[in-house]
Amino acid sequence: MNRTTTLAIISILFSALLTSPMVAAKAELKTIKASAKHQKESQMVVQLVERLHYKDTSLNDEFSVEILSKYLSVLDPSKMYFLGEDVVAFDRWRTRLDEGLKTGNLDPAYDIFAVFKKRVAKQKAYALSVLDSELNFEKDEAYQWDREKAAYAIDQKELNDIWRKRVKNDYLSLKLLKKEPEKIKETLAKRYKFMAKRVDDMKSDDVFQYFINSYLSLVEPHTGYMEPITSENFEINMKLSLEGIGAVLGNDGEYTSIQTIVKGGPADVEGTLKSGDKVLAVGQDSEGSFEDVVGWGIEDVVQLIRGEKGSTVRLQVIAEDDSPETMPHVVSIVRDKVKLEQQAAQHKIMKVKDGKHERKIGVIDLPTFYLDFAGLQNGDPDYRSTTKDVQDILDKFSEEGVQGVIVDLRNNGGGSLYEAIQLSGLFIDKGPIVQTKLSHGKIDVKRDVNPSIAWKGPMVVMVNKLSASASEIFAAAMQDYGRALIVGGQTYGKGTVQNVMALNEYVNDPELELGQLKMTMGQFFRINGGSTQNRGVIPDILFPASPGLENYGESSYENALPWNSISSSDYTVFDDLSDEISQLKNDYLERAAVNFEFDFLKKEIELYELEKDDLTVSLSLTERMRKVQERKDRKKARKAKREAMLAAVETNPLLGEISLLFDSTEALKSEDTLLAEKAAKEKVETEENDEEDEEFVDFRLHETARILADFIALKMENLIAKAEKE
């Protein structure tokens, strides 16, 4: 779900050493003001956006009203601190923030933050007093855990009642984890103190970044400002090779969550952790206690998760949209270095047996569109690139007698546009790949100029909601040329072009250390004239999406650029696949009706639809225990049913038998990871564990392999028919 993050996203894998969370609370609240530097940056940012942004935007009184609302939601997204009377008082600035940003008068933003800081300190004190009182878990009352769309508390009494219920809910969640009362109180007291301390420790830079980005995010979702320290650390840390789990963290002011999983990293190899998962606690080594991290700063959570290569870290996590009544599951990950090879294209060879026929299917797993720019520019013949690596894999596929290729772009967020164009050229004759329209109206057409084709056989491109940018450009080109079937889920819909501008380049003062502005300067268009923006790429064969994914994607932003179109490019279609798509879609639907994996997914979606609008949770111990047991029973029943179906002597004849012949990722696992996997398997075999996770089955990939096998059969039938006719 696209929620406003209130702290910068920091990579676990590449973060520098940071300060300890164990610092005594301040006796008095510090007052902070805007600096002269921030006043200047504010003026510059507004001028650059109004002059150069792709979207024609005017900063006026109407926009000012939106900025005020956005800024309050950035500071207090769950409406747990500001009172209704505060919001009414802030109303005096509702039509003045636009002029303030233009002139550099940022006092309103800092005055609002000062009120916020006081409210946070007050609610911390109240939460601690509730924690020391007698809590009654027999009373039948409910707590609204998601208050994003709730109204602000009308007065202090109402706000305190919300916090009383919150403390009860926090206590009950830990009680269900079988923690002792004294330990629960100690954990929660530390949590509330940390949350207040983080706000109290914020500096002028933090407040400016929150405020200026409240404005910029309303212009367009991919436009934003980074303080010098943020951008500098990002550049430096991305060059380091520190041990970690290979994930990027974000923070919403309360929960630390997984933003992205680094492809090929330890978390990706382990396979359980997912984007959006919220980290509740961190444990060291394979056994031992957990440290509660709810309310911690992202830097402090990073310190707990990072560690020496070969050591184990355990995370207690719940999914992004899980309610507080959800029991966390434990993910154990062996820390390791992420090697370049692990982030590059990987491949599998699978066999699909369908009746008398067997088809060899090659799968190319592409994590990102990567390119060694320096090596390319320096003429290094061994420079690393997506296209070169995929070319090598295609050569291996030809040697192994592979009959069809799947390019797996699921979770591929993009990367090098140059590589998206070059990769497209491996599968088509020369021609246009993508069109770019810039802010001044000029249209630039990017082309593949190499007439050679590396793979002429049947091909499928797999995508999902997390396939974005360069992935969408490649998938759209393959679809428009009729070169490949597109299978999976609707893509993200990011069809815009951003430039990063160093503000120092616009001033003649070497003493000033200004930040950077990332700004949208153009929009991508398909060669058929349509845009990938907002709508994304719609697959030819659409799989049902996992529950909750409707909250992802460009279309979930209210101010995202709309879908648009321009004139089509001049290109020659490789093949008309409309007849094949119709037949393949029917065959897929027949299989999905008898495939228990799709049946499980359907039931998950139905359950999610029933529960997604319930934003409350019971504060009754009896009711919560009943809910927890209900979820456990459902999980055990599903696991037992899957095992029974997999153990069946004969599979449904509609479901072609899938076997894995080769997987390049197995050779990339470190010795530490292999030993840890062996130890974990032995532990499961000797212990009874109600919370044991089901083995991951990539049923979407299996079904895609069956679709491709059918596609190969149709192509062979067409060739035979053509030969007989001739």
Question: Could you write a compact summary of the structure shown?
Answer:
By secondary structure, the protein is an alpha+beta fold. It is 41% helix and 17% strand.
Question: What is the fold's blueprint, element by element?
Answer:
Layout: E1 7-11, H1 36-52, H2 61-75, H3 84-90, H4 97-103, H5 107-131, E2 142-144, H6 156-175, H7 181-200, H8 204-219, E3 224-226, H9 228-237, E4 247-251, E5 256-261, H10 266-270, E6 278-284, E7 290-292, H11 298-305, E8 312-318, E9 329-334, H12 340-343, E10 346-354, E11 357-365, H13 373-377, H14 386-399, E12 404-408, H15 417-425, E13 431-438, E14 443-448, E15 459-463, H16 470-480, E16 485-488, E17 496-502, E18 516-525, E19 541-542, H17 578-594, H18 596-611, E20 616-618, H19 621-646, E21 657-663, H20 671-686, H21 699-725
Parallel strand pairs: 11-12, 12-15, 15-16, 16-19
Antiparallel strand pairs: 1-4, 2-20, 3-18, 4-5, 5-6, 6-7, 6-8, 8-9, 10-11, 10-21, 13-14, 13-18, 17-18
Span of the ends, CA to CA: 56 Å
Task: Estimate the strand proportion.
Answer: 15-25%
Whole-number mean pLDDT: 87
**Helix and strand composition category:** alpha+beta
The CATH homologous superfamily of the largest domain is termed: 2-enoyl-CoA Hydratase, Chain A, domain 1
Helix content: 40-55%
Return residue spans where pLDDT drops below 50 for at least 5 consecutive residues. Answer: 1-27, 231-242, 686-691
Per CATH, the architecture of the largest domain is Alpha-Beta Complex
Number of domains: 3
Query: What oligomeric state do these chains adopt?
Result: single chain
The CATH class name of the largest domain reads Alpha Beta
Which fold does the CATH topology of the largest domain refer to?
2-enoyl-CoA Hydratase, Chain A, domain 1
Tally of helical runs: 21
The number of distinct β-strands equals 21
